[in-house]
Amino acid sequence: MTIIESIGNTPLVEIQRLNPNPNVKLLAKLEGNNPGGSVKDRAALNMIRSALERGEINANTRLIEATSGNTGIALAMIAAIYGLSIELVMPSNSTRERTLTMEAFGAKVTLLDSIESCRDYAEEKGAQEGWFILNQFANPDNYRAHYLTTGPEIWHDTKGKITHFVSAMGTTGSIMGNSMFLKEKNPAIQIVGCQPTEESSIPGIRRWPIEYLPKIYDPSRVDRVIDVSQQDATARARQLAKEEGIFVGMSSGGALHAALQIASEMESGVIVCIACDRGDRYLSSDLFGT
Question: Which of 7, 46, 235, 262 has the lowest tally of Cβ within 10 angstroms?
Answer without folding.
Answer: 235
